[in-house]
Amino acid sequence: METIHRVFVGDSRDLSSVADDSVELVVTSPPYPMIEMWDDLFSTLDPAVGRALESGDGREAFEAMHAQLDRVWDELERVLVDGGIACINVGDATRSIDGSFRVYQNHARILEAFESRGFDPLPDVLWRKPTNSAAKFMGSGTLPPNAYVTLEHEYVLVFRKGSDRREFEPRADRRYEAAYFWEERNRWFTDLWTDVRGELQTLEFDGEDDGLRERSAAYPFEIPYRLICMYSAYGDTVLDPFWGTGTTTLAAMCAARDSVGSELEEAFLECFDDRVDDVPETSRSIGRSRLARHREFVAENRESGTVPEYEAEYYDTSVVTKMERSIRFREAASIETVADGYRVEHEPLSVSEGGG
């Protein structure tokens, strides 16, 4: 199996390098409006943002920032196939503007934007991001009533383009081999992820980074990897219009899906090659870990007297449902740099001693 991963330097408000109806899944985390670290970016995209902030008009600044994201959502509507899924990781913002403190609900504004474009919202996910200060309050300390709740979660908003689900040919190998285990389904398809942690990136740039290190704000690898496994099949293409440090591309490589990324700052691409070097080992480790955890699940169930009914076709283990029998993990065997990106050759997972 071969996958192709393209990365373009450019403005994601214009994804002309991506063809109409050519993407099955979007997984991305945009810059969050009303978070100060992105003020300069939004002001560059639209000077009205800077003017609104300077005049103390938070609501106007909030709307002007989202107006720029709206142009990206227009492009996603164009490039996604009917029935394709968009997963948008976003956090709300708290901020004092002109002496008034409030929350700016980015997730609600994005929800409205996608619905107005004909997307159907699907159940979303909250994930805990405990990277804030140990102080669990803001405002007046321990005195009521003027303290504020600390935001320690982010949203993964999930949308489907149109009301119809994607269709596949009966018993399509690329779909059945991309299945997930029963217990993974139960853990992943819950609306609260407490086992994912925020992470800080250590980035290496040549010369001055011009604040890019602070603006990377990469989400944990586990988030795009899960979403890709949940909402795509082998042969699908995953798009990240806010590519950043390339975490979505890395997850797509490890999950053996094609990918496309668009990034405004060319300097981010400089540090990506070092991350790519780890993909073969990472993909192998992920596949073996998933298989090992499943075998532990089966063993625990056998001890409790529950014996899974079916046997996996490619691995020496039992599975709970018929749909799991054809699961087949892939690992990245080799990576080649090509025009605009990378070509990855994938092979069936090489399992460690102890069985296939």
TrEMBL record:
GO terms for molecular function: DNA binding; N-methyltransferase activity; site-specific DNA-methyltransferase (cytosine-N4-specific) activity. The keyword Transcription does not apply. Gene3D superfamilies: Vaccinia Virus protein VP39 (3.40.50.150). Residues 23-270 form the DNA methylase N-4/N-6 domain. It holds the Pfam family N6_N4_Mtase. It catalyses: a 2'-deoxycytidine in DNA + S-adenosyl-L-methionine = an N(4)-methyl-2'-deoxycytidine in DNA + S-adenosyl-L-homocysteine + H(+). The keyword Nucleotide-binding does not apply. GO terms for biological process: DNA restriction-modification system; methylation. It comes from the Archaea. Its EC number is 2.1.1.113. Keywords: DNA-binding, Methyltransferase, Restriction system, S-adenosyl-L-methionine, Transferase. Belongs to the N(4)/N(6)-methyltransferase family. N(4) subfamily. This is Type II methyltransferase.
